[in-house]
Design a protein that fits this description.
The complex is a heterodimer. By secondary structure, chain A is mainly alpha-helical. Chain A contains ten helices and no strands. Chain A has one domain. In chain A, helix 1 packs parallel to helix 3 and helix 6 packs parallel to helix 9. The longest helix of chain A is centred in the C-terminal third of the chain and has 27 residues. The radius of gyration of chain A is 17 Å and the shape is globular. Chain B is low in regular secondary structure. Chain B is 0% helix and 0% strand. Chain B contains no helices and no strands. Chain B is rod-shaped. Classes of the chains: A mainly alpha, B little secondary structure. The interface between A and B is medium-sized, with 20 and 9 residues.
Amino acid sequence: MNVFRLTGDMTHLASILVLLLKIYATKSCSGISLKTQELYALVFLARYLNLFTDFISVYNTVMKLVFIGSSLAIVWCMRMHKMVKRSYDQELDTFRHYFLIAGCFLLALLVNEKFMFPEVLWAFSIYLEAVSTIPQLVLLQRSGNVDNLTGQYVFLLGAYRALYILNWIYRYFTEPHFSRWIACVAGLVQTALYADFFYYYFLSWKNNAKLQLPS
Amino acid sequence: GKKNKKKDEL
């Protein structure tokens, strides 16, 4: 474990806590893409299959349970909770995310570390996570003004993977035989997708103005 | 040495 990965995990956890706070405090999920939440739930379920077979550490197990539990709870809330689901921007959240799932699965069959079921699913979860934020970014551009908590949620979600890239660079130089090229390339794509969001988020912070994404 | 195959990251 290194400082980049730990702050990365804490940033990821913070993004989930901010999202839970927004939904719980405002009883609203306006501006949040249900499709991105469903993709993230699928990412965690596909990646953490080894939850009960490979014990890495208490930290690792606890975080996996938190990520799976929170992502499923958010999807359940947005689909079932009568007050929350009323505020869901159904007509704006129309990105066809099933194509993302199919595409990532095909890519995982072709490009993986080893053509074994767990490895293919792991690669699938890595590719899917890289593109899972697209419905959310599309929704933000369509909905124009972004409330603070939603903006902070998306910012933290993007920042965590940037910290993981620093972690991979650090591990590459400090650990012999360390290679996570699949995760690293996908992580670079994932972080690049946030580039313009980061730019407008920085502008809104610098000018102390409301976060506005050009539609 | 053995490549660290374990997926120790989240």
